[in-house]
Amino acid sequence: MKRNIFVVLVLGIFLLFGCIGQPTDIKPPEPDTNTTFAKVVQYGDTVAVEYVLILQNGTVYDTNSESVAKSSGSYDPLRKYIPLTFTVAKGAGLIDGFVEGVIGMKAGGKRQIEVPPEKGYGIFDPDKLFSIPLYYEKERFEVVPIEWLESQNILIKNGQKVEIKNDTVFQTNIGLVSIYNFTNETANLEYLLSLGSKFKFNGLPQIVVNKSADSFTIKYDLEAGKDYVTFDSKSGTQKFVRVLLVNETSAIMDENHPLAGQTLLFNVTMLAIK
Questions:
Q1: pTM assigned to the model
Q2: Tens-place pLDDT, residues 106-145
Q3: Which structural domain, as residue segments, surrounds residue 171?
Q4: What residues contact residue 155 under an 8 Å CB cut-off, 6+ apart?
Q5: What is the number of helices (H) and of strands (E) in the chain?
Q6: CA angle, 128 as apex, 125 and 133 as ends, to 5°?
Q7: Residue 14 belongs to what H/E stretch?
Q8: Residue 99 DSSP label
């Protein structure tokens, strides 16, 4: 029963934060009637397309058309609105439903492609919802193998191997670290974090909120409703995580893709078949 209430709460939050842009009255393109070119898109072709991704509620979620972005309220001045060029193949970084949908199109043709969740970003999975503590302790001093230093590229300068010395300071993904003692096998490190130091680890912003003689208290500096890109610890591949709720002690996270469970509509114009 508690789990059902939790899922309902999360779905409500998802609906609250899930839409980008404003609902639009963009209509599906006219059917492809171009007969000028005999060539049609097949697997292995390289194509250039203009697209508009519309959610079922009419919201323009994404587009590479500048005029559509401006008219729908989803325009990003930092983005370059250029044709999407890709090789038509599964597993090439685009969802299967989109790739399958352009098969058979002709240069200059237009089509609306409907992509169900199973061929898009997957079915919404409640098991991908989880909670993390907002605070954790990080030891100020640490002993690491010499091989770890090699993996941090601090023993190489200008292509040459350099000698390790005490008080050598180097940059890591969580800030500056100093070597204060070492042997042929291990090195003693001191993390030089300060109160208020900010850094990102595994894609998540963090901040030092307390410092003692032996440790740091670190807080995840997360924003509810925001998406972050992290990395799977086993495969090393990128994955999305959305922060659904932040309270005084924890955060509710969602590893479903923001568009998981949604049927997607793509208005596609085939600009070129290369």
A1: 0.65
A2: 999 999 999 999 999 999 999 999 999 999 999 999 999 9
A3: 135-221
A4: 149, 161, 162, 164
A5: 4, 19
A6: 155
A7: helix 2-17
A8: H
